[in-house]
Amino acid sequence: MADGAGQLYDSRDGGRTWRPVGVPAWPQSETLMIYTAVFDPYDLDHVVLGGSDTGARVTFDGGRTWAAATGLSASGGRTNVFSAVISPAAPNVVYAMGLDLAELEAGVPSGGWHLYRSHDGGRRFTPVVDQGGDITLPNGPLLAAHPTDPGVLYFVWGTGWSGIGTNIYTYDSRRDRVTTRHNSYDRVTAIAFNPSAPRVMYVGVAEEV
Hints:
Elements: E1 8-10, E2 19-21, E3 34-40, E4 43-51, E5 55-59, E6 67-68, E7 79-86, E8 94-100, H1 101-106, E9 113-118, E10 125-130, E11 143-145, E12 152-159, E13 165-172, E14 177-183, E15 187-194, E16 197-206
Antiparallel strand pairs: 1-2, 3-4, 4-5, 5-6, 7-8, 8-9, 9-10, 11-12, 12-13, 13-14, 15-16
């Protein structure tokens, strides 16, 4: 697991006791908030952390060393990385959702909200989906990578206010397009796939208003 300072911990007794491993992803002198921590399902030494203002950090050696992710800001400025997921089909593919604060301040059409993709495990990201048109990117959306196709990502936006319902978006990197399926539930809170039949998707839904 990871704590709010970007320090990793592991347990060798099923979670009864924990010990810190490696070093924090960010210097203690930096004021930050950790928004997300995602672990490679096949290599727990590969971890991506997303934070406020400081973008993302990635380790491939269990937190002994960390690298700052690049490509999250067009100007090289501050970025909030709210959510991320490592593809179970190809762990070198990492998706993240972030807010480029310089673009937010500049008033660009997307508002600075982007979905990013990395081909090298999280070292460098490229924006692949911008907020705008029919696509809404809230802070920290649910991201679900396709279990067998690293080129496909599902993400959601939904609210019960005014009966808007929920959009489940599908990003297809090969076609470079996003398709939308809408339902009337207030929110989709979880997405999972049948391990023996990966084409079967399960969704957790919420009615809140």
